[in-house]
Amino acid sequence: MNKNLQMALMVSVPLEGWESINRRVRYLEALLAQVLNNNEGIKEWYSSTELASLKLIGLPEKRAGITRMAGKKNWTRRVVKGRGTPFFEYHYTSLPEKAFNELIEWIYSNPAKEVKTKHSIIPVVPPLIEEPQEIKVDYSTRQWMLPLMRVIKGGNVKTLGDVVKKLPEYLDNEIEQPTGHEIEEALREIGVIANK
Fold it and tell me: In this model, does residue 65 exceed pLDDT 90?
């Protein structure tokens, strides 16, 4: 038998499934930034009260309006039993596109202010660095930050030089290649590389 035999694998995914996968990937990238920023946990489920407090574009302003919208649009939900009446929490993948995009931006701009809930089923992620540090990173000006996270997540890099060489493969043509110094500085700011 030929050990060099290669087979092409093709998978057919319905459009709705593909959109869901893309939304999950974008959310996971945002959560990766959150974890790298020494946040205490990851959150996927939001109550109507939490969503109303975030004031996301595309969602009603009031809790009751969000609950009605979720019912009409058949959002993915779970029942949470608290002290009082049980209530619903809604999965981030159910949010309308504009609200979802705004939630992603909110996660990036408020990494240390994530809405907390004692009902989360997601385990708390321990800090990546021992001493808490105030991290002020403006990701909106660094369009190369997410591609950088993808390079690191890929796991085929061992040194900063490897990262600098691999990053152009992940950048869109209109995004300017950062210098090695800029990459090193960004990785220090988010705690991936220890400070000198």
Answer: yes
